[in-house]
């Protein structure tokens, strides 16, 4: 799936888009009055998303709800975070401009700097933690993921499944993390290893050194961390988002895989649902963003293995079973400065090539 890919094109997009002011648009001038939003969204009757396919985080549940409750029809083009921002830019004010997207919060500062988003806080703003939102209201995470290990017990004994970064380092199995140059999931895996070994978003050296050791021992797998490769048995241990690990395991055979949270540190981050500044259907975009943060929208996400950002939402048992229990998380880190992390991710692909893959 391309949803978790960032692609290096984000760096080019940063250069290509000017930081100067733009003319006011329909999305910027849209009323934030809820009654007006509902009334006008129904008139628009359509919401077009990018990077929000039905199968990712159970977005399909929310799109079906919008259709049944508000008579708003939905269409999506699946793409990476960077591609979403490029699409916002390239379509401009055209009638084909997408309305809403779902981007990793590590790239959200780029979207703000490039003047691509419209502000809209929704009535749930105060229930979203400060690390997961932009102070001005340009973006806010709807759900989170945490980095975990998934072990295929057909390849590795369940008793040998790692429960910490320290154990992972001393194992005999190969470890797959995906493409650090292009995948947000892989980049957060490096960040989690850095945190667990004394680093941070501004000091990734401990994380790079950690994986360089695995590379030197010929334990770093080049296999991509996809559900297909897991099913074929080509992965021994992988590092990935908990919502991907849970989803993949349940789709294949949950008894075959052991999912563990590194006790010496994981990183938790999120994906933000953002309204395009030039949205062709600005009211429908606002209604969708608000619905995603509502109790029903948050439950939909949990049913798709994604942890809701609003911790006050009471989840039904069916949704709770799709999430790892809170007790599984001993030490959770959050990025303290998304601007710093955003800049580091743009350099991380080259650093990985030089300091990890280049190790002999």
From TrEMBL:
Cellular component aspect of the GO annotation: outer membrane-bounded periplasmic space
UniProt entry keywords in alphabetical sequence: Signal
Domain of life assignment: Bacteria
Record-level Gene Ontology MF annotations: thiamine binding; thiamine pyrophosphate binding
Pfam families: SBP_bac_6 (PF13343)
Keyword Manganese tagged: no
Signal sequence region: 1-23
Gene3D superfamilies: Periplasmic binding protein-like II (3.40.190.10)
GO biological process assignments: thiamine transport
SUPFAM superfamilies per the UniProt record, alphabetical: Periplasmic binding protein-like II
Identification of the protein by name: ABC transporter, solute-binding protein
Origin species: Lentilactobacillus parafarraginis F0439
């Amino acid at each position: 799936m391309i949803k978790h890919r960032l692609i290096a094109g984000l760096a080019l997009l940063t250069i290509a888009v000017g930081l100067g002011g733009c003319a006011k648009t329909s999305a910027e001038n849209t009323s934030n009055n809820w009654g007006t939003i509902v009334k006008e969204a129904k008139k628009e009757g359509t919401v077009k998303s990018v990077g929000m396919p039905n199968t990712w985080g159970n977005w399909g549940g929310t799109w079906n709800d919008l259709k049944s409750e508000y008579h708003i029809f939905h269409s999506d083009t699946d793409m990476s975070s960077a591609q979403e921002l490029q699409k916002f830019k390239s379509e401009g004010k055209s009638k084909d401009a997408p309305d809403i997207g779902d981007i990793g919060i590590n790239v959200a500062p780029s979207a703000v700097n490039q003047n691509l988003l419209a502000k809209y806080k929704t009535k749930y703003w105060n229930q979203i933690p400060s690390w997961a939102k932009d102070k001005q209201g340009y973006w806010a995470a709807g759900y989170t993921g945490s980095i975990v290990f998934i072990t295929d017990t057909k390849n590795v004994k369940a008793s040998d499944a790692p429960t910490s970064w320290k154990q992972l380092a001393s194992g005999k199995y190969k470890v797959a993390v995906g493409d650090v140059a292009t995948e947000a999931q892989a980049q957060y895996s490096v960040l989690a290893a850095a945190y667990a070994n004394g680093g941070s978003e501004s000091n990734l050296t401990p994380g790079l050194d950690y994986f360089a050791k695995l590379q030197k021992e010929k334990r770093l797998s080049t296999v991509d961390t996809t559900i297909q490769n897991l099913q074929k048995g080509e992965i021994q241990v992988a590092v990935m988002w908990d919502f991907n690990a849970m989803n993949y395991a349940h789709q294949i055979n949950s008894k075959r895989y052991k999912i563990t949270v590194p006790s010496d540190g994981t990183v938790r981050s999120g994906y933000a649902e953002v309204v395009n500044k030039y949205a062709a259907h600005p009211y429908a975009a606002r209604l969708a963003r608000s619905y995603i943060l509502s109790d029903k929208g948050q439950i939909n996400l949990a049913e798709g293995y994604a942890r809701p950002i609003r911790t006050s939402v009471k989840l039904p048992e069916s949704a709770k079973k799709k999430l790892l229990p809170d007790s599984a998380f001993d030490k959770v880190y959050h990025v303290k400065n998304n601007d710093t992390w955003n800049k580091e991710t743009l350099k991380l692909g080259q650093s990985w090539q030089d300091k990890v893959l280049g190790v002999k």
